[in-house]
Design goal:
The structure is a single chain. It contains 16 helices and no strands. The chain is mainly alpha-helical. The chain has two domains: 96 residues; 252 residues, no CATH class. One of its GO terms (cellular component) is membrane.
Length: 380
């Protein structure tokens, strides 16, 4: 692998600035050209600089800009709720503030394209305490997991029970994202910069995850929803020429959407691992395979009268989703964990601080918890 240079935050800010300016300038058939420097800068930073913690954001910016800069005539097609006329006819200052709102709202909050069926109520300060507690509990448990240690055993080689501990990693990621976002939203509202309605939770309600489709569509892919849909539509209808409202087209777009998501996560793999053997792309395409299988089973079941989601059906659904994630997620997250993900996320821990005086604990592969678990579940 070639030697990488130091990450250049100035270039990253330049790419974001060009993206923003592209939303401010009046519509033009040449506006798509601005996507070229945006994508070039992002690819350069991922491939040739040490951007371990920014690769995911950089590749997300590529596809976010592909939608809003190259594929969508934003000033004529997108409108705020209540907006009567296109912003393209407004003054520069009006277009500036309009573009700023659009740039800061990848989920379309407050816009006509807002996915209202998937938006949850604004988070409260009580939710912060819940996030902190759940995050710390799962992180402390993860610290003692022999399969979560840098340079240790890989989850992809683990037995089924140890492999299922990847679900703790899922919970940690969910609460970590929710915690930071909730704190930021409450501060913003308290300062009077925004209103509570501007800040629905960044992720969906985890109780909705009783199918693989709902897990991704309602819980995880919230900030990616628009550009994944726009770009899969473009490929299906404009490039391939598939008919609308066709079953094959529906699943073609499903695979395209997860392929794009996989590419974004694959870029993160490369930045973290330093090579292209990460499992992000495979893992996310597998999600489309699982959804296709799942939809077929649901369609067959509905023919026998099993249509409405009862509590028992949801219970089986949660078991199925947990089993599927246990199988598929280690393909992607396993290499990250053995590369030192837990050591990179060391932070404040109330539990370890109060119990052992270790307020900023590091992963500990040999402690009471790991020894006890190893006796119950042999490490293979």
């Amino acid at each position: 692998m070639h030697q990488k240079g130091e990450f250049k935050p100035g270039l990253f800010l330049l790419a974001e600035a060009i993206s923003f300016v592209s939303l401010v300038v009046r519509p033009s058939r040449h506006r798509w050209i601005l996507f070229v420097p945006i994508s070039s800068i992002c690819v350069y930073l991922v491939l040739f600089t040490e951007c371990k913690n920014n690769a995911f954001i950089l590749f997300t910016l590529i596809f976010f800009s592909l939608d809003l800069v190259a594929l969508t005539d934003v000033q004529n097609e997108l409108r705020l709720v209540g907006q009567k006329t296109p912003i393209s006819t407004a003054s520069l200052s009006s277009r500036f503030w309009w573009a700023l709102r659009l740039f800061q709202s990848p989920r379309g909050i407050g816009w006509a394209h807002e996915p209202t069926a998937h938006i949850r109520p604004h988070p409260t300060t009580l939710r912060i305490a819940k996030y902190i507690l759940i995050f710390d509990v799962t992180r402390v448990l993860s610290y003692s997991n022999p399969y979560f240690q840098k340079g240790g055993l890989s989850l992809t080689d683990a037995g089924w029970l140890w492999r299922s501990t990847v679900l703790a990693h899922v919970v940690t990621s969910y609460t970590m994202l929710g915690l930071g976002y909730t704190v930021y939203s409450i501060v913003s509202v308290a300062l009077g910069l925004t209103v509570p309605g501007d800040w629905p939770p960044i992720l969906g309600y985890i109780g909705d995850a009783y199918t693989v489709r709902r897990s991704w569509g309602r819980v995880w892919h919230q900030t990616m929803r628009r550009f994944l849909q726009v770009e899969s539509d473009f490929i299906a209808y404009k490039i391939v020429g598939l008919p609308r409202k066709d079953t094959f087209t529906t699943y073609f777009k499903l695979f395209v959407a997860f392929f794009i998501s996989g590419l974004i996560h694959y870029a993160g793999d490369y930045a973290v691992l330093g090579h292209w053997s990460g499992g992000g792309l495979i893992c996310f395409v597998y999600q489309a395979v699982a959804i296709t299988f799942e939809d077929s089973v649901i369609a067959i079941a509905s023919k026998f009268g099993f249509t409405k989601p009862t509590p028992m059906k949801k219970l089986f659904g949660y078991i199925w989703v947990a089993a599927w994630l246990t199988y598929s997620l280690p393909i992607w997250s396993g290499p990250h964990l053995t590369a030192g993900f837990m050591e990179d996320t060391v932070g404040f821990s109330p539990i370890m601080g109060l119990s052992r005086g270790e307020w900023f604990p590091k992963p500990d592969p040999v402690n009471v918890l790991s020894t006890a678990l190893s006796k119950i579940i042999p490490v293979t």
